[in-house]
Amino acid sequence: MEDRHRRGRMRSAGVPHTTPRVRRDGRRGNGSAVELFTVIAGSAPQRMCIACRITADRDQLTRFVIRPDQRPAIVHDVSATLPGRGAWVHPDEKCLQRALKSNAFARAFRTKVASSDLPRIDTEPKENG
Predict the structure, then answer these.
(1) Are 49 and 89 in contact (CB under 8 A)?
(2) How far is the C-alpha of 86 from the C-alpha of 120, rounded, in Å?
(3) pTM of the model as a whole
């Protein structure tokens, strides 16, 4: 009885169980070699803006990374492929100003950030680097 209740609590609300179950005789699943996977069509990767804390699709936000060479600086990652920890911000001036004022970049990168390392609003790079 206790097992039944525990199994029911582990399932997410509305999400079907996708891992094969083990039967009492020790075999897995329903005997077939095909496993079913649930894929939600149309779902894009989600990221959270570090300034306004609103979750949005990845293509609606801009990524910044910290460049750890001789003098660290925060750079705009245009292609979203640079290595390292990224911080996502809405591409409008209001969110970027809020992130700069609230020390959000230091929290996102989990390190101390000097004011000279912060990105400038007046420059918009066309490519990485």
Answers:
(1) yes
(2) 17
(3) 0.60
Provide mean pLDDT across the span 97-114: 90
* CB contact at 8 A, 62 and 91: yes
**Residue 89 near residue 50, CB atoms below 8 Å:** yes
CA distances from 5 to 9, 13, 14, 23, 94 (A): 6, 15, 17, 17, 49
- What H or E segment, with its residue span, contains residue 62? strand 62-67
Q: What is the pLDDT of residues 15-51, one digit of tens each?
A: 555 555 555 665 555 555 555 556 556 678 899 999 9
CA 27 to chain centre: 37
Residues 6+ apart with CB under 8 A from 69: none
Distance CA 125, CA 128 (A): 7
Dist. CA 46–CA 56, nearest whole Å: 6
Instruction: Tell me how far apart the alpha carbons of residues 31 and 72 are, in angstroms, rounded to a whole number.
Output: 56
